[in-house]
Amino acid sequence: MSVRIKVCGFTRVEDAVAAAKLGIDAIGLVFYDKSPRHVGIAQAQAIIAALPPFVTVVALFVNASREEVENVLAQCAIDVLQFHGEESPEFCRSFHRPYLKAVRVQPGADLQTLAARYHDARGLLTDAFVEGAHGGTGKTFDWTLIPPQLPLPLILSGGLDEHNVADAVRRVRPAAVDVSSGVEAGKGIKSPQRVADFVAAVRAAQN
Ligand SMILES: O=C(O)c1ccccc1N[C@@H]1O[C@H](COP(=O)(O)O)[C@@H](O)[C@H]1O
């Protein structure tokens, strides 16, 4: 199966439409107000409305309250929730929506146990651990810390870009890759050229 591609952190309609035309599978919208890529409801609605069919919309939260998540779900056509903080499995599954659980990987991380705790997630998303940050840092991590047999589909993220993603796909063999900083021209501004190069690198690596 082809490696799925999610690009996260869109803030502009034109960037999301351009990325969709380049064949990405999913777009991520960041509902975390400390992120430079944070979107409000109106902005998110405009981006979602402009997308062609069959592009999955992922809403990213970091330790949000139930009310915040429910407010987004009530007003935006979200397909998948991405929990990028310390949310419990009970919290993640309580919305009865497909969800991804992100983990920031550092030496000693027990990804097997974590994947078992979040067994009903659609995937385990591995990001780099950076002190004081929750994600979107553009930093990679040691991919050998990922066990070969995980019980959940693996979504590899953390510092991926057009230059390293082919190597990542060949080495880690993830179900999907997720990128934010690595395809940007500036914070929250995606570069169509970088997205195109990223998609081409993923496709070349899986052939
Ligand atoms: O994108 C953000 O600003 C962000 C903020 C807080 C948590 C997660 C965030 N993004 C996610 O971080 C990873 C890695 O991003 P990068 O490619 O290293 O910049 C990715 O899963 C984003 O969805």
From TrEMBL:
Keywords, comma-separated and alphabetical: Amino-acid biosynthesis, Aromatic amino acid biosynthesis, Isomerase, Tryptophan biosynthesis
Domain N-(5'phosphoribosyl) anthranilate isomerase (PRAI): 6-200
Database matches in Pfam families: PRAI
Membrane-spanning ranges: none
InterPro entries in the record: Aldolase_TIM, PRAI_dom, RibuloseP-bd_barrel, TrpF_fam
Swiss-Prot/TrEMBL catalytic activity: N-(5-phospho-beta-D-ribosyl)anthranilate = 1-(2-carboxyphenylamino)-1-deoxy-D-ribulose 5-phosphate
Pathway participation: Amino-acid biosynthesis; L-tryptophan biosynthesis; L-tryptophan from chorismate: step 3/5
GO molecular function: isomerase activity
Enzyme class at the top of the EC tree: isomerase
EC assignment: 5.3.1.24
NCBIfam families, alphabetized: PRK01222.1-4, PRK01222.1-6
Protein family membership: Belongs to the TrpF family.
Name the record gives this protein: N-(5'-phosphoribosyl)anthranilate isomerase
Species annotation: Vogesella fluminis
